[in-house]
Amino acid sequence: MTAVRTSTLSDSLGAGTLPTATLDALYRRIDLRVVTILAVSYLLDCIDRLNIGFAQHQISERIGLTPQDYGFAAGIFFIGYVLFEIPSNLLLPKVGARRTFFRIMVLWGLTSASMGLITNRNAFYVMRFLLGVFEAGFAPAAMYYLASWYPRERMATAISIQQIAAPMSGVIAGPVSGMLVQNMDHVAGVDGWRWMFFLEGLPSIIMGFVVFATLPDKPSEARWLTPAEARIVEENASSTGSSHHGFSAVLRDKMIYILSLGYFCVICGLYTISFWLPTVLRQSGATSDLQIGFLAAIPFFCGTVAILTWGRRSDRLQERRWHGAIPALLAAVGLASIVATTGSLVGAVIALSVTAMCLYSTYLVFLSVPSDLLKGPGAAGGYALINSIGLLGGFCSPIIIGHVTQITGNVNAGLLTMSGIVALGGLIFIFAIPGGRATPAGTMPPE
C-alpha cells in the first residue's frame, strides 16, 4: 500500500525521500516563522538608514549643510558599517543569531532616534557614523542565518522574501517621512525632521526584543519543528558543505574579491537612488516634502515587484549569470535616462521606477551567489567580507554625487558617473559568474 503523506516527518525519513508537497509545506512554515521576522527587521533597518533623504531639505536649512556635506553624512554611515561588520559576523557563530540581532537592532534604534537631537554638522557626521557601527553585521548575518535554514535551490526565493524589505522601506518611508517632516513641523516646538527620527527609531528597539523572544538560533532549537524536521532542514541547508573550512581560506579566494567588486558597483547604483531620489524629484519639479514622499514610493514599489518576481524566476531556472547581468545593464541605461528627463516630473518618476526595478533585481541575484560558494565556519566572515567591500559603494556614491552636485548645481553628472559604474557590475556578472545552472552546494566554480 502507498504510505499516507503527511507534514509530520518520521525520524526514519530523509530529505531525499520526502514528497515535494511535504517539503514545500515545511519551508512555507519556515518562511512564516523565520523570514517574515527578518524581513520586518530589515525593513526597519532600511528606513532608519535612508530616511535622511526625505529630511535633507529641512536639515540642510536648519544646520547649514551643502550638498557635499549631505553626501558625506550619507556616506560616512558605511565607514562605520564596514569597520565593524567582519568582527560582528565572526562572533555570530559563537554568540548565536538571536543575541546578535538583538544587540544590533536595539543599538541602531537608539542611535536613529538620537539623530533628532543633532544641532550641527559635526554631530550629524558622528551620529551617522555611529549608526553604521551599530547596524554593522545585520545584512550578512541574515544571509548566513538563512543559509542555515534553506537549501541552495530555495535560497534566492528566501532572500527575496527577506530583501523585499529594502524597496518596501522606500514605499513606507517616503509617505510616512514626508508626512512627519511636513505635518509634525513645530509640534511642541520641535522641527518635523526631528520628530521623524524620534518616531522612526522607536520601532527598531521594540522589534529587537521581539526577535530575541521568538527567533531560534538554529533549526534544532525551533520548538515549532519536530526533531526529524529540524534534522532534514539542517542536512539540506546551504551552509552545509566543504568548500571553505575557515575564514583564512575565504581570504585567499580571488572569486570573493571579484564578487565584492561587482557588489560594490550594484550598491553604488542602489544608494544613488536611495539617497538622491528626493533631490531628483525636487529638481524635476516636485514642490513639497509630502509630494516628494508619495512620489518616491512609486519607484520603490516597482522595486518591490521586481524582487518578488525575479528571485523566484532565478531559482526556478537555477540561473544566476544573466539574471544578474541583464538588469544591471538596463539599470545603467536607466540612470543615464534620468538625466534626459530633467524638468519633467512624470518622466523622472518613470525613469526612476525602471531603474529601481532593474537595480533591485540584480541586487537580489547578487545576494544569492555567495551561498553557492561559501560553506563551513568561515562562511559568516565571507559574507561579511563581500558585504563590507561592496558597501563601500554606499560611501563613495553619495560623496561623488554630492561633490558633483555642489559644483554643477544639479545631480546629472553624478548620475552619469553612477551609470558607468553599474554597467561595470553587469559586465562582472557576465564574465565572472558561471553560466548555466547555479553552482551546486559544496563546490566552487572553475577558476
From TrEMBL:
Topology of the protein relative to the lipid bilayer: Multi-pass membrane protein
Protein keywords: Membrane, Transmembrane, Transmembrane helix, Transport
Chain segments annotated as transmembrane: 70-92, 101-119, 125-147, 159-181, 193-215, 256-278, 290-310, 346-369, 381-401, 413-434
Localization in the cell: Membrane
Entry GO MF terms: transmembrane transporter activity
Stored InterPro entries: MFS (IPR011701), MFS_dom (IPR020846), MFS_trans_sf (IPR036259)
Domain Major facilitator superfamily (MFS) profile, first and last residues per copy: 34-437
PANTHER family: PERMEASE-RELATED, TRANSPORTER, PUTATIVE (AFU_ORTHOLOGUE AFUA_6G08340)-RELATED
Protein name (database record): MFS transporter
